[in-house]
From TrEMBL, chain B:
<dbReference type="InterPro" id="IPR002826">
    <property type="entry name" value="MptE-like"/>
</dbReference>
<feature type="domain" description="6-hydroxymethylpterin diphosphokinase MptE-like">
    <location>
        <begin position="46"/>
        <end position="116"/>
    </location>
</feature>
<dbReference type="Pfam" id="PF01973">
    <property type="entry name" value="MptE-like"/>
</dbReference>
<protein>
    <recommendedName>
        <fullName>6-hydroxymethylpterin diphosphokinase MptE-like domain-containing protein</fullName>
    </recommendedName>
</protein>
């Protein structure tokens, strides 16, 4: 079978992405989920429950 | 469709570990934008700091009413009303309709989610049309208050109830609330107490929480990811209640609930397909009820954050989960029937 090898030189080098960077199913799910999934608001682990500079935080 | 190699619940559990970051990334910008817009309402109402000085309820107990699927099966308000409970009733905005249609004006309600169009539905959306409903099945699909199944009728009902009772209700109104929610709260004459949700660690450089605080000087509250947890935080840390009971805090679905009736069904199907949904949903047996519940990554995260917050709470504050179902159990939470809690506090 003939193989097309190209018949011109590109002006710039073309870099091929490393296949190791391919998106995993988990990545895909997270990207998809990020559009809709998530809490209503953040949770800040190990921080005091109330933070108010005027009252010094309680 | 990709081949799913994960076993039941495994994909869901992987996502739980990332929920904190995913939520921060998705919500942070909208919360700040809303807070900037809400600056114009800063003087309509008081700071949450004022609520800390008020006497709310006649004893040191509070009951949180959230809107999980157990509410329609257990009807906690019936027992609460019959018991003559004298403590504070704190409800999520999503449980307002349930409270008001049962003749209970809560001592405090809480709202925080910055979503532009959905949250206002709990207050009665004056701009709701059948056309808008047709484009979003979020509420009618879920296993929640059956009154919401007929959405236009429910919207009319909650509008009427809040127009009538709004002025009697205190609301802990997050600066992150949408324009639609804030306008509706003002319109109904609710008693407003403003606060900021923590968006990140306020002690780090470039903190968005610190930015919020500089903007309006309202107290910042670690809200635990969801409005039910925020209600618990208000009851324990703001109202200073020592005994706090939770109702309607399932963080899960009953085992016999079809996947279609869960919050993130469409998203899960679009990714893994109907036949692989078991990999996303996490099944957890409840040893107190002897039954199995299942949950999704967001609600599983809520459970984990809540257990952490309860563990970090003031040692004098005890938390009792009286939902009588769901997945929120574990140290330091006492899981007990609502009747037992009411028996000690009525």
């Amino acid at each position: 079978m003939d193989v097309l090898k190209g018949n011109f030189k590109t002006k710039k080098d073309v870099k091929i992405e490393d296949a190791g960077g391919a998106e995993t199913l988990e990545d895909r799910f997270e990207r998809e989920a990020l559009k809709h999934l998530g809490g209503s608001i953040a949770f800040v682990a190990k921080k005091k429950v109330l933070w108010d500079l005027d009252e010094g935080g309680k | 469709m990709a081949t799913i190699t994960e076993g039941p619940g495994e994909l869901g559990r992987k996502l739980v570990a990332n929920m904190e970051r995913m939520t921060r990334d998705r919500i942070g910008g909208a919360a700040l934008d809303n807070a900037r817009f809400n600056l114009r309402f800063k003087d309509h109402g008081q700071s949450l700091a004022a609520l800390r000085k008020e006497k709310v309820g006649e004893n040191d107990a509070a009951i949180v009413i959230a809107a999980g699927p157990s509410v329609k099966r257990k009807d906690p308000l019936r027992a609460i009303r019959e018991s003559g409970f004298k403590g504070a009733v704190v409800c999520t905005e999503s449980a307002l309709l349930y409270c008001l249609r049962n003749g209970v004006v809560p001592d405090l309600t809480v709202t925080l989610d910055p979503h532009a169009t959905r949250i206002v539905r709990w207050f009665g959306d004056t701009r709701l049309t059948p056309e808008k409903l047709g484009a979003d099945d979020y509420y009618r699909r879920q296993d929640m208050d059956p009154a919401f199944a007929d959405e236009m009728k429910a919207n009319q009902e909650i509008m009427g109830l809040l127009n009538e009772h709004g002025s009697k209700i205190r609301i802990a109104l997050s600066s992150s609330a949408s324009e639609a929610v804030v306008e509706r709260v003002m319109e109904t004459g609710m008693q407003v107490y403003w606060w900021n949700p923590m968006l990140d660690d306020p002690d780090t450089e470039g903190s968005k929480t610190r930015e919020l605080y500089a903007l309006n000087r309202f107290p910042c509250v670690n809200a635990g990811g969801n409005v039910g947890a925020a209600c618990w935080m208000m009851a324990s840390a703001v109202l200073g209640k020592k005994q706090v009971a939770l109702t309607g805090m399932d963080f899960s679905y009953y085992g016999d609930t079809p996947y279609r009736n869960t919050q993130y069904y469409h998203e899960a199907v679009s990714l893994v397909g109907e036949e692989n949904l078991d990999s996303v949903y996490i099944r957890i047996p409840n040893p107190y009820t002897g039954t199995e519940f299942y949950t999704d990554p967001a609600y599983m995260w809520y459970r984990e954050t809540f257990l952490q917050m309860a563990g970090d709470a003031h040692p004098e504050c005890q938390t009792f989960n009286c939902t009588e179902g769901g997945i929120l159990f574990g140290d330091p939470i006492v899981f007990e029937p609502l009747a037992d809690f009411l028996g000690r506090h009525s």
